[in-house]
Design a protein that fits this description.
Layout (H helix, E strand, L loop, with lengths): L12 E12 L7 E2 L4 E2 L1 E11 L2 E8 L2 H15 L7 H11 L8 H21 L3 H4 L7 E7 L6 H13 L4 E5 L7 H12 L4 E5 L6 H15 L1 E5 L7 H10 L5 E4 L6 H8 L6 E4 L6 H14 L3 E4 L3 H7 L6 E7 H10 E2 L8 E2 L11 E2 L1 H4 L3 E3 L5
Parallel strand pairs: 6-7, 6-13, 7-8, 8-9, 9-10, 10-11, 11-12, 12-13
Antiparallel strand pairs: 1-4, 1-17, 2-3, 4-5, 6-15, 14-16
């Protein structure tokens, strides 16, 4: 028997619009810090793709230049294209980006457009995005993430203890901006959360190799830290391998949030340089990229952890067979709750996609978003 007509048949992209919103942080003095960076705002770049009377959305977190790249380079490539295969369109865009620059800004713009195409396809089919993907799970475990280096001790300990109180059994703080302060910070956190929850540390590449090795042992032995993220820069593959081999056996070395292409991930698993791989759906090529990286993690017998963007990652990483968990990041949680209806909250330490809503289940709260607009115009 032949199949009947599909909502996707003869359905092509009518229009693409790009927006950006800059939301101030809520840290002390309006700033937040980690081991290597200080910032006072978070910018979300939103892409909407329209076809068949339906709109799909995707987004990324990055500089305003990401919005310009998406508007000038990528939107023209998909206008008039059929929307039946988001992966095919994603590969087309990637090929055409060669001279403009694929890593960094280009990869983030591509990721936002790719997510919007997948969201659009799911909405046209009347499916939640998770049901369009080859899902292996129906939920994604999370860990609370924030603990910025400029937080006073009471706010630091209170934030991480608050996540534990919500049933999240693992939490992470930023470290290594001023290593001499980390002992009291870790002591305050461990005292606030108790001995049971897992404690993670993220240096954001602030340390040299020998210094990182010293702190790896101290973090583990004194405070039972089990996850040390980017102790050295993620481009220092030799340093990551050294730490993985010479650090405590129960302390995992992790990286991958700044990997933009498939080769970046292949470099990290070669050796390997990490115990657990990380990927950011808003940087690594969107849903299409996550599916490719999931295969790499599986064949290399490495778990894959989702970096941030919880409203997208909750769907995308259900399709990762060797799923570890998702970073439930303070800044992104704030921004997504501010800008979208349909965001998710953890239950039992995990995010479960809403299968009662099509696509990602998100709708833009335009009135709430408008005061933060830095690119594009509000739809009429």
């Amino acid at each position: 028997m032949g199949r009947g007509p599909s909502p996707l048949d003869a359905c092509t992209v009518d229009a693409v619009d790009v927006h950006a919103f800059e939301v101030p942080t809520d840290g002390p003095g309006g700033k937040e810090q980690d081991g290597t960076l200080e910032w006072d705002s978070t910018t979300l770049v939103l892409v909407r793709v329209h076809a068949g009377g339906t709109t799909g959305l995707g987004y990324t977190y990055g500089d305003l230049s990401v919005a310009t790249f998406a508007h000038s380079k990528l939107a023209p490539l998909i206008k008039g294209a059929g929307i039946g295969s988001p992966a095919a369109l994603s590969h087309r865009m990637a090929a055409r980006m060669r001279n403009a620059g694929r890593p960094g800004v280009g990869a983030m713009a591509l990721s936002a457009v790719d997510v919007a195409l997948w969201d659009l396809k799911a909405r046209l089919l009347g499916l939640p995005l998770v049901h369009l993907l080859p899902a292996c799970h129906d939920r994604v475990p999370v860990y609370g993430s924030g603990g910025f280096t400029n937080y006073p001790l009471d706010r630091l300990a209170g934030q991480l203890a608050g996540w534990v109180g919500q049933g999240i059994p693992r939490v992470k703080l930023k470290t290594s901006r001023e290593p001499e302060r980390d002992a009291e910070r870790l002591t305050a956190v461990r005292g606030a959360i108790g001995d049971g929850p897992e404690l993670f540390a993220d240096a954001n590449g602030a340390l040299g190799r020998k210094e990182a090795l010293y702190w790896a042992h101290r973090f583990h032995d004194a405070w039972d830290v089990r996850w040390f993220e980017e102790p050295v820069g993620s481009a220092d593959l030799e340093g990551l391998r050294m730490l993985r081999e010479r650090g405590p056996a129960r302390l995992e070395i992790t990286a991958g949030e700044y990997a933009f292409t498939a080769q970046d991930f292949a470099n990290l698993v070669e050796g390997p340089a990490v115990d657990c791989l990380q990927a950011d759906v808003t940087r690594c090529g969107g849903i299409t990229g996550v599916l490719e990286i999931a295969g790499l993690s599986a064949v290399r017998h490495l778990d894959l952890s989702a970096h941030c963007a919880p409203a997208i990652s909750a769907h995308a990483f259900c399709a990762v067979r060797r799923l570890r968990h998702l970073e439930y990041f303070h800044d992104h949680v704030r921004v997504e709750h501010l800008l979208f209806d349909g965001t998710l909250s953890p239950e039992g330490g995990a995010l479960r996609p809403d299968t009662g809503r099509p696509g990602l289940g998100l709708d833009v709260k335009w009135a709430d978003a408008e005061p933060y607009r830095v690119h594009g115009t509000r739809p009429s």
